[in-house]
Amino acid sequence: MALRVYNTLTRQKEAFQPIEPGKIGIYACGITVYDLCHIGHARSAIVFDVISKYLQYLGFEVTFIKNFTDVDDKIIDRAHAEGCDIKGITEKYIEAHNRDMDALGVARPTIAPRATENIEGMIRLITTLFEKGLAYDADGDVYYAVEKFKGYGKLSGRNLEDMLAGARVDINEKKRNPMDFALWKASKEGEPWWDSPWGKGRPGWHIECSVMSQRYLGDTFDIHGGGEDLIFPHHENEIAQSEGATGKPLARYWLHNGFVRVNSEKMSKSLGNFSTIQDMLLSYHPEVLRLFVLQSHYRSPVDFSEGSLRDARTGMDRFYTALKTMKDTLASHGGAINEGKDPLTEEHRQVFEKIMTLPERFAEAMEDDFNTAKAIGHLYDAVRILNSFMAEWKNKPASETVYVLVRSREILLRTGAVLGLFLDDPDHYFDADRNREVRKKGLNVEEIEGLVEARRLARAQKDWKKADEIRQALVEKRVSLKDTSDRTVWKIE
RNA sequence: GGCGGCAUAGCCAAGUGGCUAAGGCAACGGUCUGCAAAACCGUUAUUCACCGGUUCGAAUCCGGUUGCCGCCUCCA
Question: Is the predicted ipTM greater than 0.90, yes or no?
């Protein structure tokens, strides 16, 4: 294994070495729970899910921590707007988030801690920062004195002078340096608060991650991840807090995923150009979303559009068509597996050997900074080889054929599973896809099936003209037909 | 203004010094099919935004130009 990862801290790919052999700790910044998750959140979640799954596939025991920020200005605003307390908001959106992630096939983290469950730890950490001379109290607000931390700016690649030059920070007379950031905020009227040595208040945004990562993963852990917008200020500030307190590096490798864009602009709440995961799942199979995300490298920006999702759907259909053909071929030949006792024919052996190289090529792509796009290219290669093989052999049952298909399918499914793909049953995949499309386009299933049956009768009587007219009528409803030896299946384009 | 990233075929997208520039979508031709669809076979970038440089050799390294994007404020 020669895993190499791009480390934002050093701006280059590095050989990956876990701190403790066989074990890996990952901390990924979660979301602030005040609204539904959109495709951008989905990308980040899918990327780190795949990283975690791949590391487990390599045999590592992975501890994956992803937090919920459940106290913050936006949550408070939302609670005021809806006339409830913050828990009324956070519970609702944590639940929605979990539903979305489950639907996307994103594994639940080992632990999903919440900021509000870690207030004591934050107070302890802030106290330590006071002791180190890195924090100061200003009328109940507590700030971090960035000038006192010599490494400030090392992650984002800038220094304090650069930051001040273009600073767009609020003028705040309480701060000694405009770049100082809040560790603790005095609560205003109507805001949630906790008691602290500095009065009633609530935590600043960054302190929670320093506390929770240390609590569950220790002073120094392997991988810290998040969207690239978190590099500054959030992750920079986490480093200042954690390393300022412990004197040890916070994380060995910093991984950041690129954004989802819409018309070349960042997808975000503030621009209002977002699509929620919930909405997308009404129109597409979750694995289509995963394929869409994983077809680009995780650090590149990816442009979201209806067209690019349709393309991903077509690609996913290609995979499931192959899996369906394999399933049907095996079902029709049930049982007779040649367990390698009889020698394979030359053609069988050649196909089998090509498929056997898939895990190796897959690993080669993945260990180069998780190159899922390349890995998917290898999956398509395997599918083409298998389709070709089946086209040649499916009507000539042979125990070697069954053997090759059974083993090949295992390999395909095992590698696909690392990406969270091919987990559905092919028949279920196509049924669900058809149901989604029918609902979306408001089509009438009985009417379609009636036409399909009418065409079947016409074909049985070799009335090709009538059969083609019916098919043309269906095509106008975007229904496409596929005649197999015993029946006709239809799908929506 | 400061810092950083990107530019590869009609579209999406791998590739970061050296075999014929992955793969997907789309298109076209062929096989199969009553005809289609799916599948398979074949075709589609002598060229990697542009200009210059380094090198025996560059899409890949260096300098410049143009265009796009991100961060510097909450943000995955």
Answer: yes
